[in-house]
């Protein structure tokens, strides 16, 4: 028989895979300490996030803030953090949700910032 866990949403926020991994990892650890087991769905989601993030989780909040300081929407920031574009053309394509595409100089700054954080491979 499985245990039912009831969760209540306190706030809704756009999260990158790296940010979601960090939060869910802490929740799973807490559940494991309290109950000794973790529901299969939570384990699977955690495993997916562990293998599908390109930014070190401990640096995700910092990168999110840097990109937000460029005036980007949260939806755009999440896409950039999950995909980690490596060229201006890729970056422009991901700016579709922005009302106005940033100028070339800003795009280059964003790309340079991303290249400093994106590892290209999810950590194990």
From TrEMBL:
InterPro entries: HRDC-like_sf, RNA_pol_Rpb4/RPC9_core, Rpb4/RPC9, Rpb4/RPC9_sf, Rpo4. Its EC number is 2.7.7.6. PANTHER family: DNA-DIRECTED RNA POLYMERASE SUBUNIT RPO4 (PTHR39646:SF1), RNA POLYMERASE RPB4 (PTHR39646). It is found in: Cytoplasm. One of its GO terms (molecular function) is nucleotide binding. Keywords: Cytoplasm, DNA-directed RNA polymerase, Nucleotidyltransferase, Transcription, Transferase. Part of the RNA polymerase complex. Forms a stalk with Rpo7 that extends from the main structure. One of its GO terms (cellular component) is DNA-directed RNA polymerase complex. The keyword Membrane does not apply. DNA-dependent RNA polymerase (RNAP) catalyzes the transcription of DNA into RNA using the four ribonucleoside triphosphates as substrates. This subunit is less well bound than the others. SUPFAM superfamilies: HRDC-like. This is DNA-directed RNA polymerase subunit Rpo4. The gene is rpo4. Belongs to the eukaryotic RPB4 RNA polymerase subunit family. Residues 7-121 form the RNA polymerase Rpb4/RPC9 core domain. Pfam families: RNA_pol_Rpb4. It catalyses: RNA(n) + a ribonucleoside 5'-triphosphate = RNA(n+1) + diphosphate. GO terms for biological process: DNA-templated transcription initiation.
């Amino acid at each position: 028989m499985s245990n039912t866990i009831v969760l209540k949403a306190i706030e809704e926020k756009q999260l990158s895979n790296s940010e979601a991994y960090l939060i869910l990892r802490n929740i799973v650890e807490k559940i494991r300490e309290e109950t000794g087991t973790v529901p299969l769905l939570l384990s699977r989601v955690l495993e997916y996030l562990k293998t599908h993030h390109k930014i070190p989780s401990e640096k995700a909040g910092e990168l999110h803030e840097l990109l937000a300081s460029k005036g980007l929407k949260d939806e755009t920031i999440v896409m950039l953090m999950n995909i980690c574009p490596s060229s201006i053309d890729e970056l422009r394509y991901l700016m579709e949700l922005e009302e106005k595409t940033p100028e070339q100089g800003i795009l280059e700054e964003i790309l340079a910032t991303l290249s400093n954080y994106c590892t290209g491979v999810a950590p194990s």
